[in-house]
Design a protein that fits this description.
Helices cover about 35% and strands about 20% of the residues. By secondary structure, the protein is α/β, with parallel strands linked by helices. The chain has three domains: about 210 residues, Rossmann fold (3-Layer(aba) Sandwich); about 110 residues, Rossmann fold (3-Layer(aba) Sandwich); about 100 residues, GMP Synthetase, Chain A, domain 3 (2-Layer Sandwich). It starts with a helix and ends in a 9-residue tail after the last strand. It binds zinc ion. Zinc ion binds next to loops.
Length: about 450
């Protein structure tokens, strides 16, 4: 009940802030930022040291940016609750049965993929979680007009999240914690693994018949193709695409017969932004600050793609993120958005991995989601970074960057065994895995790392 009261209070404030326009939003943002910086200075030894010598009252842009490797290296000094330690948290996330349960009875914990070279471990306090939930309701409320609400209720709000499973990833943790909260409606939430073969995934969705379908754009695009082909026949009311930039929204909406929304989310804060009818993402700027910047952290002018973006989470106290290098390339919209939403608008670029279309031994192709194929090797020991590049209809080059001191041959054997096991499960035991001599490559205009790169144009007709 306390949680509910807190969320309701935040929700009322969210409505007031948005109604008050840019000035009301800025007032809240500035007050929350001042409180966060003061808290970080008193309660986080890492920030106390970092901000030493800075005057008491500073502007956001005067604070030094921080990076994930830097914060992870000082983890125990970064967090503001001395009872939270990296060693203890690593033991917690190593236990898969604890996904969605609260660490130390109160903290929401999630990890971000290690395959990009920089694994992250994120702890969110109850106040932050209440803020995220309230904002998810604001986002979801915008997607449900009067015509769609009854349809949603008729289907008992059945929610399917199609994601990579097997770890404490944000989407999985969120769904599991919702299930644990709502005892009576546990069966209304279904986690559907993208690692399973596509026909089984399709069958599971057909059986469950979700009213709300949430997934990565690459997974949703594949499901739209399955729906067009007549194998998938679901009738979602709302489809929420999350985690990467959304491609062809109109095509998804037509194939799945649903209202399609794009949510910009991260393990560090969720939801950062929700899209509008004009195709822009509106940032929840009363609770999260985004600064598009160049490589040297100077501000990127509006209208131009940034090198990266600095995120400041105004809701979470236990693990302060202040001017944190998130790694995404974003474009800030110059001037107000035509849709009338006063929240600042952005677009996100360069967060897209490719769907692989691999040829089977007996002919035909199998579509493999990027998240599904990288999941088995995400926590492979000795791997700093891994990149899969399709080099033929049934051939993948595996580019590995090892951790310092790792034994190359042992790591290679382990990675290929894991990949081969996954591929065999998809009916793709014939696919050749080639050990690449070259290191993983930073590709794409934004310089954002791509884990999976497909052969272009894709072979076959899918
Ligand atoms: Zn807009």
């Amino acid at each position: 009940m306390a949680d509910f009261a807190r969320e309701l209070a935040i929700m009322i404030d969210l409505v007031r802030a948005k109604r008050g326009g840019p000035r009301a939003l800025a007032r809240r943002r500035d007050a929350r930022l001042a409180a966060l910086v003061a808290h970080a200075r008193t309660s986080s030894p890492f920030y106390r040291e970092l901000y030493r010598g800075l005057p008491e009252s500073v502007l956001l842009r005067e604070l030094p940016p921080v990076t994930k490797p830097e914060l992870m290296a000082h983890f125990d000094d970064w967090v503001t609750d001395p009872a939270v330690t990296r060693a203890d948290l690593e033991a917690f996330v190593a236990d898969r049965s604890l996904v969605g349960s609260r660490y130390r009875g109160r903290y929401f914990v999630c990890t971000s993929s290690g395959t990009t070279g920089h694994p992250g471990l994120f702890v969110h306090d109850p106040g932050a979680v209440a803020t995220y939930r309230a904002q998810a309701v604001r986002a979801f409320g915008a997607a449900l007009d009067a015509g769609r609400l009854p349809a949603m209720l008729r289907r008992r709000g059945r929610t399917a999240v199609v994601v990579g499973t097997g770890g404490h990833f944000a989407g999985v943790v969120w769904l599991e914690s919702e299930r644990r909260r709502s005892r009576g409606r546990r069966r209304a939430y279904r986690l559907i693994s993208v690692q399973q073969p596509l026909p089984r995934l399709v069958q599971e969705l057909n059986d469950f018949d979700p009213a709300l379908l949430i997934g990565y754009p690459s997974a949703l695009e594949l499901l739209a193709a399955e729906q067009d082909a007549g194998r998938l026949h679901i009738r979602p009311v709302v489809v929420e695409s999350s985690g990467e930039s959304l491609g062809d929204r109109a095509r998804l909406a037509a194939a799945l017969g649903a209202e399609v929304h794009n949510v910009y989310a991260a393990s560090e804060f969720s939801p950062i932004a929700l899209d509008c009818p004009r195709g822009w993402l509106h940032v929840n700027s009363d609770w999260v600050i985004l600064e598009p910047v160049e490589e040297d952290y100077r501000p990127t002018p509006a209208g131009q793609p940034s090198h990266t973006v600095l995120l400041t989470n105004l809701a979470n106290r236990v693990q302060p993120l202040i001017r944190y290098d998130l790694g995404d390339s974003v474009i800030a919209k110059p001037g107000p958005c035509e849709c009338g939403n006063p929240l600042p608008a952005i677009r996100v670029a360069g967060r897209h991995d490719d769907v692989l279309h691999l040829q089977k031994a007996g002919g035909g192709t199998v579509s493999v989601l990027p998240l599904a194929i990288t999941a088995p090797i995400d926590d492979a020991p000795g791997v700093h970074r891994c990149q899969l590049v399709q080099s033929g209809p049934a051939e993948l080059r595996v580019r590995l960057q090892l951790e310092p001191g790792a034994a190359g041959e042992t790591v290679w054997q382990d990675v290929t065994a894991k990949l081969a096991g996954f591929l065999a499960g998809q009916g793709l035991a014939n696919v050749d895995l080639v050990r690449a001599e070259e290191a993983p490559d930073q590709t794409g205009a934004s310089g954002k790392f791509h884990q999976v790169i497909a052969l272009k144009p894709p072979p076959g007709s899918v």
